[in-house]
Design goal:
globular; alpha+beta; 4-stranded mixed sheet; 8% strand
Length: 455
């Protein structure tokens, strides 16, 4: 393996906005809106962003980049940290194939640098697509597709390298500088799956974004790292995946037609871990056939061995986002799963407590643990002995299934933005975001000024 890192960086630097194409531009604009919307909602619905914002504000720093939802600015690294965490905390951002969070780890870096360093909508779209592209190929090359073999939370594992690419584009780094940025970012990678369902999980994405941005800014100043960081026998691939496993040849496929287009991403319409969308969809299908949820005698769910979502009685509403049992109960009881479904008041409601006692989950080794191939079976027995059952291969919007329409997506965007913004401001953000690649720096700053508002 010779010069894998250098050859990859040469290819990355050579690609620009003219290489995106109409399909990738359309996807970038949708991602821009989705990311801003879920970040704004995250600052309202969950407490971690407010804690992080207070922490960062107290630390101080050059006031050059907006902190979404909290009405102040800080340095770009800290802004990306908070905004990336806010963008992920609801677990409402798109899901990627192989499984990963590739928006909260990229978009906040581009936005922070657009304010701090300069750049227009074309720069933001291109930088985001390029960073996402690297994360996707790193995940493909890793061979760690199935939940049973993933050792680290993927955004913390590959996000810093992707964010370094995003930031490098915004900063105009050359090949050698990008090599160093990726080398620096490689030493900042890693995140523990044990923290799923806690405040810490959201920071996996925020820190990945901040660390990649910081790496690129250091590289711009001449800071150096191992120029063979990907392929070195003590480097990134060897540590996280194994040199005999990592498929270095896939790095040569970086670029058009772009992974934002193929295989694309799944827009989330429920604010929870993507595997739970399978049980939610199954529960929503059965809900209309159950006139009174109190008549449910038992619920049995069969799915793949995803043990981190086997949480019979989640300790908090936030932890409920990572529970097959809880999300299924929400769907069966309410006929909907929305942001307020994961508030503690809903989690500990008496009827929820009663239904959770009736749910069993069988995680079977014969059911694939990769989102692209998995399914869940749900069986509900009522008090008169009637049995209702369904099999779900995934929610709408999953790869290969019916897509989420633009109008449906805008309902989500409006719902999220409307938690903090006036209807006039919501529509202005949608107008600007839908024309991302036509925006100048002044319009980008206008968007950030709107979403910064604390009231």
């Amino acid at each position: 393996m010779e010069q894998v890192t250098e050859k990859l960086c040469e290819r990355i630097v050579a690609l620009g906005h003219d290489d995106l194409g109409e399909a990738a531009i359309a996807k970038a604009q949708q991602l821009f809106l989705d990311g801003l919307a879920v970040a704004v909602a995250g600052t309202v619905q969950e407490t971690p962003p407010s804690v992080l914002a207070a922490h960062v504000r107290e630390l101080g720093g050059a006031e050059t980049a907006t902190v979404i939802g909290f009405g102040f600015k800080t340095n770009p690294v800290q802004a990306a940290y908070v905004n990336g965490s806010s963008m992920h905390v609801l677990d409402f951002e798109p899901m990627w194939s192989p499984a990963n969070h590739q928006l909260s780890t990229q978009l906040p870096a581009a936005l922070a640098l657009a304010e701090h360093h300069g750049g227009d909508g074309r720069d933001v779209a291109t930088a985001m697509v390029k960073g996402i592209e690297l994360m996707g190929w790193l995940r493909e090359a890793s061979g760690q597709y199935d939940a049973t073999v993933v050792r680290f939370h993927p955004p913390g594992q590959v996000g810093p390298l992707g964010a370094a690419v995003t930031a490098a584009h915004m900063l105009g780094l050359d090949r050698d500088q990008l090599v160093n940025a990726i080398a620096i970012a490689g030493s900042r990678a890693g995140s523990l799956l044990a923290n799923a369902g806690t405040d810490t999980k959201s920071t996996h994405c925020g820190l990945a974004c901040a660390m990649g941005l910081d790496a690129a800014m250091l590289a711009a100043r001449g800071f150096s790292g191992n120029r063979r960081v990907l392929e070195d026998d003590r480097g990134y691939a060897a540590l996280f995946f194994g040199l005999d496993v990592f498929r270095f040849e896939l790095m040569e496929r970086y670029g058009p037609p772009w992974r934002v287009v193929d295989p694309g991403y799944a827009i989330k319409m429920f604010p929870s871990q993507f595997g739970t969308h399978f049980v939610i969809t199954a529960g929503l299908e059965l809900h209309p056939r159950i006139q009174d949820p109190e008549r449910i005698r038992r619920v049995h769910i069969a799915g793949p061995p995803m043990h981190y979502v086997n949480r019979p009685r989640p300790e908090t509403g936030l932890a409920g986002k990572f529970s097959f049992q809880y999300t299924a109960a929400c769907a069966l009881l309410d006929g909907k799963v929305v942001m307020s479904s994961f508030e503690d008041a809903h989690r500990f409601a008496p009827r929820m407590e009663r239904l959770l006692d009736k749910i069993t989950v069988d995680m079977r080794a014969d059911i694939p643990g990769r989102f692209e191939e998995m399914y869940v079976d749900m069986e509900v027995e009522l008090d008169d002995g009637t049995t209702l059952s369904t099999r779900c291969h995934g929610p709408r919007g999953k790869w290969g299934l019916a897509p989420i329409t633009v109008d449906e997506h805008l309902v989500k965007v409006r719902d999220c933005l409307g938690l903090r913004l006036s209807s006039r401001d919501v529509e202005r953000v949608i107008e600007l975001g839908s024309n991302l690649t036509r925006l100048g720096n002044a319009e980008l700053r206008e968007v950030m000024a709107i979403v910064a508002r604390a009231e």
